Amino acid sequence: MGARAGARPGRPVGAVTRGTTNPNRLRRMDRWIAAELAPALRRADPAPVAVDLGYGAAPWTAVELHGRLAAVRADVRVVGIEIEPERVAAAQRHARPPALTFRRGGFEVPLDSGRPLLIRAANVLRQYDEDQVADAWALLRGRLAPDGLLVEGTCDEIGRRQVWVALDRGGPRTVTFAARLGGLERPSDLAERLPKALIHRNVPGEPVHAFLRDLDRAWAAAAPYADFGARQRWIATARAVAADWPLVGGRDRWRLGELTVRWEAVAPGNTR
Questions:
Q1: pLDDT of amino acid 212
Q2: pLDDT band at residue 271, thresholds of 50, 70 and 90?
Q3: SS3 per-residue string spanning the chain
Q4: In terms of pTM, does the model score above 0.90?
């Protein structure tokens, strides 16, 4: 990727992010990760390692990620990685080695040994150009353990709306849309949180635009369910959309305000 050009040996790959962060901002993403990765976390030997890449000006997201994954696998280790040395230094008072540590680095994902089962990169690629995304994904996927997962996406400042792509070593697998349903006027409100690979593709003729259009139509048709609450309306919306789009998961995930679709259905350049 462009950030690698001219990089010196030992120099982190990437650019410093804005660093904006808030406690509990990534709870929806973490909840999905803990469920999706649970089998791999439990069977990992030795203890699995997860990376919070670009955690920002404060280490809250790394601290919370450890707590949520430790509920599945008690000896999981989380490494928070940041390019900015001052952010790494400030995070050290929250470290609890070996369970939770912080170090300087970038897309090269420097670890003392082994490969991570998870790399979470939230609100990191937002500042990059769209044509840099594929290279960034390739670098990160190349660092994963054989059954590892890269989760890359974007959320608002307090985590009410989030969209992320899940990738394994072979490439992107799914896109997940997640929201606090009580404050959602229409599903396409999530468009502003699309990951960099998709946000500029929300235009007529692109599949992600068609997907959001169909979500809005199903949401409008499900308006009578609003009398039973926003959750029931969302479930009815997902059930309707599943007739035409390859959704992953079912009611148990939908009731949490999530909806996951296979990547190939919304990938840029596909026709719909």
A1: 98
A2: low
A3: CHHHCCCCCCCCCCCCCCCCCCCCCCHHHHHHHHHHHHHHHHHCCCCCEEEEECCCCCCHHHHHHHHHHHCCCCCCEEEEEECCHHHHHHHHHHCECCCEEEEECCCCCCCCCCCCCEEEEECCHHHCCHHHHHHHHHHHHCCCCCCCEEEEEEECCCCCEEEEEEEECCEEEEEEEEECHHHCCCHHHHHHHCCHHHHCCCCCCCHHHHHHHHHHHHHHHCHHHHHHCHHHHHHHHHHHHCCCCCEECCHHHHCCCEEEEEHHHHCCCCCC
A4: yes
* Integer-rounded Cα radius of gyration of the chain: 18
Q: What is the 3-state secondary structure of 119-167?
A: EEEECCHHHCCHHHHHHHHHHHHCCCCCCCEEEEEEECCCCCEEEEEEE
Contact 215, 188 (CB under 8 A): yes
Q: Burial, 179: exposed, middle or buried (Cβ in 10 Å; 0-12, 13-18, 19+)?
A: buried
Spell out a b/e string for 79-92, using b for 16 or more CB atoms within 10 Å of the CB, else e. bbbbbbeebbeebe
Compute the distance between CA of residue 187 and CA of residue 143 in angstroms, rounded to an integer: 34
User: Which two structure tokens, joined as six digits, stand for 59?
Assistant: 């280490």
For the chain, report the end-to-end CA distance as a whole number of angstroms: 30
pLDDT, tens digit, 9 for 90 and up, residues 34-81: 999 999 999 999 999 999 999 999 999 999 999 999 999 999 999 999
| Residue-range domain boundaries for the chain | 2-169
Q: List phi, psi (to 5°) of 74.
A: -60, -30
Q: Which fold has domain 2-169?
A: Rossmann fold (3.40.50)
